[in-house]
Amino acid sequence: MIISLDTETTGCDFAHGVMPFLVTTCDNSRGPDAIKFWEWDVDPLTRVSDVPSEDVVTIAELIDAADKIFLQGSKFDARALAAINIQLPWDKVSDTLAMGHLLASNHRHDLTAMCIEYLGVDIESYELHVKEVTRACRDMVKHEYPYWKIAQEGDPDMPSVKKSSKRDEDKPWKNDMWLPRALLKQKHLENRPIFGDTTWTTACSKYANADSEHTLYLGLEMERLIRERGYWKIYQHRLDLPRVACEMECYGVTAIGEYTESVIADYQYHVAESGAELVSIAQEFGYELELAEGASINDNMRGFFYGSVEQRCTACKYTKRIKHWNGDSVREVVCPKCSGRKRKPVNSPLVTSRRDNLKLNVVYGHKTGSASLDKDAMQEYLTTLQEGPGLDFIRLLTDKRKHETDLTYMQSYRRFWVPVPGAIGYYRIHPSLNPFGTDHLRWASNSPNLQNVSTQEEKCEECDGEGCPACGGTGKARLSVRACFGPAPDREWWDADFRNLEKRIPVFECGEKALIEVFEKPNEPPYWGSDHNVLASLIFPDDYWPLAEVRDGFKKKHLQKYKKIKNTNFAKQYGAGKRKVDATAGVVGAYEKIERGLPEIAKLQASCLAKAEWTGWVETLPDRTVDPDRGYPVLASRTEDGRILSTTPFNYKVSGTACWVKNTALVCCAARCAQWRAEGFDAHVALEVHDSILFDFPRGRTPEENLPRAMELKALMEQSGTNLVPSIPTPVSVEYITESWAKGVTIC
DNA sequence: TAACTGGGCGCC
DNA sequence: AGGGCGCCCAGTTA
Prior knowledge:
Blueprint: E1 2-9, E2 20-27, E3 35-39, H1 53-65, E4 68-71, H2 74-82, E5 93-95, H3 96-103, H4 111-119, H5 124-144, H6 179-189, H7 199-229, H8 232-238, H9 240-251, E6 253-256, H10 257-284, H11 299-306, E7 308-313, E8 319-323, E9 350-355, H12 375-384, H13 389-416, E10 418-419, E11 426-429, E12 432-434, E13 444-446, E14 458-459, E15 476-478, E16 491-498, H14 501-510, H15 513-520, H16 531-539, H17 541-544, H18 553-557, H19 559-573, H20 578-585, H21 590-597, H22 599-615, E17 617-619, E18 633-635, H23 648-678, E19 684-688, E20 692-698, H24 707-722, E21 732-737, E22 745-746
Parallel strand pairs: 1-4, 4-5
Antiparallel strand pairs: 1-2, 2-3, 6-11, 7-8, 7-9, 10-11, 12-13, 14-15, 16-20, 16-21, 17-18, 19-20, 21-22
The chain binds a DNA duplex through helix 13, strand 13, helix 19, helix 20 and helix 23.
């Protein structure tokens, strides 16, 4: 028997007690009883659902009897079922989300969109109805039962709920689909008039049942397509990912409470202090500054940067500030407030006053052409402005924005964390992981996203060496946000990074000689293991070659040029086009010089583009252990007018392949950890960040005790690269962490 | 008030 | 026209 299954829950925050309140299944008998569902009451005061144990038994038996189970986003259902003590048998699972990504990596992968794409069926009406009903109920509850626990931003039990979010799942009403049933029940209990109509009671179950029914037929159709296109082996292999993601999510990442709290307090103090200083500088200019929150800039601040125009009514208190920083002309008009009103028009004139304030030159953003105040633009001001209050202002503001960004991150970690039992002062964060969440093969992570934890450390400004009183001789004014995380007291972390993974893949695939030398002869001239040096030799040959025999010779003598080369290299890696490459390098024709100097890479890029323009997609390098003939298909991006976005095919192929390597490594390492756990060694995979994997081990008595295990995982990771066709050496470096994530010790 | 867009910034 | 993501804020619009 083949079944599909769908769960509706009271939210996404499983670590905070979220529960399923509806389970629906559909089998492939096509009979009248194909669809079954169980809907449970949710206590409106606690949001705990009342799940009869006989229902749990029935559902477990049904799952047990099934040969195959179709799920849309199996990781979510696995976690929901785990909350009612049902273990999902992963070997039976087929996931329509995984299939949707395989069949069309950059299309929408929600059930509604995929039903339209693959079945030609529109099931949106069910969702729209349940949305309408739920929102109406939420409004009623807000007035009549204000003490009911409906989903709201700021509720500590539902940290992922956001007022306005792009993700549907995070929207408040999405968490309250149990509400219509509860509200109707309450009204009935109180003998109060029933509202709405009979469809209200069933809106949620009808929606859920439509989901499970369509998941079944969608799943069957998608499996057919995957077989037809020859990706069956790859699909089977990909099905390991949601299971691993589920394990990682359940385990989570530990954070150090005391440190996080003290850094938050420290940053808050600094932000408040620099904020006050900024206001006072503006005051010297006679300008009433209103600072924006976080790293953002508001119109008031823009007025201070570029000059402001203010209009005041001569008769009333009306004032209007006009942004003239973008060149808007100012028309003098009559006051809109006290002119032309009901009685007789007064026509009070407005008085316009202009101020120059900081009078910065506008730095234009490259995307929209509008004025930009990002950190690049700020950097421009920092280097061009002369000493004075203006420069002070920019310096302070740059700092404040950075601190505020870090602050919001840390505050969100605190919102999501839960105490670690038995480890006072330690907390665990369970970010949601989506192995199918990007346009290529990277994983997405949210609530919170631990893939963007800042690594940047702040230098001590008063530092004059060893005996510095400000920093204790460390040279650091503040540790990075990364220091908020670390292993629990009886644990240790091993952080394994693929070295230059995305750079190695194309180089070894096409055999570009100079770059292979970089990787194979890291301690020899002329490149000394640095691909920056290769670019330097191409773009600044006259500067580079005389110094090529000395390690870091070019870097030391031409630091500014070296920095430009480095940025150019990064821009190139992420797919920058000709104009941007030339601009970053500061050399006209830099792009061509690179192309001529690295002809094999250029050929590979061209062939990726040609393939994408012909077929619309590229394939990652095949994996001989999965399917030696096929790689994973990744659709290229297209411009608005339908052409292939020329920068994406190569980039997608390379980062897709890199992630394939990391994904296969992750699966192997997770399996190894599971084996160790079965043997009594409690090892876990805690996190992945695109080309790195973080392992959480029990603390050894010495750093060496668990080293062999770490080396075994390193070897497993490295094996993934050699499984590619062609085989690619993918060395892994390993850090050992006992205190905080910012203080790793490089082992190899 | 909610939904949406744009800009900014963190990571790889 | 510099790839991928998530999150936050400001400002506009329905």
